[in-house]
Amino acid sequence: MRVVVQRVDQASVKVKDRLVGNISKGILIFLGIEKGDNHKDADYLLEKVIHLRIFEDDDGKMNRSLKDISGEMLVVSQFTLLGDCRKGRRPAFTSAEEPERSNLLYSYFIDSAKERIPVVQAGIFQAMMKVELVNDGPVTLLLDSKKLF
Fold it and tell me: How many domains does one find in the chain?
């Protein structure tokens, strides 16, 4: 499972010009699910991202987590994070999980986040989405549950 985490001042996601998710200060997560991923991968990444110390403290140091600042979370599914661009010019998505199983893990990630973070919004699985954000910093991180060490 891969996530791109972006520290944001605000972020939103629309589907067919309809706002489906909107947050203020917090993190935007793009979530890609790989074949073989399971609840353990989701749990690991969720705990990691909500405790990452990527928000500034009073001294301007990145020393506070999403939980520390009572920040918000927007989760958007993005299978293209599993694109393999090593050969040719068209990405291959053979390592991306099948949609039905991927949707189950996407929903699990969101439901688990809602148990830990007061404000969690999400995009719509498999929809064509328009994502807008104001990246704060900018701070952008890539995490992969298969790269634990």
Answer: 1
